[in-house]
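Quick one, tokens below:
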């Protein structure tokens, strides 16, 4: 029998940082928070669609968004969801692969194409014009979460 996981209210607080790992996977705890909040109708301004950063996790594991969404809706806790991911991912990954992938995503910066760099700079500029410490996409997500819930840039 599945345990009932808490449904975080993302109208009141952000999901977990993309850096938080579960089973070595970055993004997974954040995806679970967003999926649970979506199921409970308290997603707020966040998106749970299998796009954006979530697409990287889906591509790496080979899971479909619909399958993951349906499994989250069963109310499983984090450990049970990790077990489901490991058992059902079409692309079975070794621990070293998960670690390397997670490390890469933690350090991932805009690709270098002018449009992406401009988009990144504009997104950072929404929060602060003088921040020189925001280099990665995860930095930007954390800043966005912080500022969205009243933190100072």
């Amino acid at each position: 029998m599945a345990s009932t996981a808490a449904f975080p209210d993302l109208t009141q607080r952000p999901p977990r940082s993309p850096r938080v790992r579960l089973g070595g996977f970055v993004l997974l705890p954040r995806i679970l928070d967003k999926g649970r909040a979506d199921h409970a109708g308290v997603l707020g301004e966040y998106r749970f669609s299998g796009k954006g950063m979530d697409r990287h996790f889906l591509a790496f594991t080979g899971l479909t968004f619909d399958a993951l969404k349906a499994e989250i809706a069963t109310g499983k806790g984090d450990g049970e969801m990790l077990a489901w991911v490991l058992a059902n991912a079409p692309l079975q990954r070794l621990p070293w692969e998960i670690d390397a992938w997670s490390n890469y995503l933690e350090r991932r910066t805009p690709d270098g194409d002018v449009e992406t760099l401009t988009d990144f700079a504009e997104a950072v500029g929404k929060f602060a014009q003088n921040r020189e410490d925001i280099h990665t996409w995860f930095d930007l997500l954390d800043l966005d979460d912080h500022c969205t819930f009243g933190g100072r840039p």
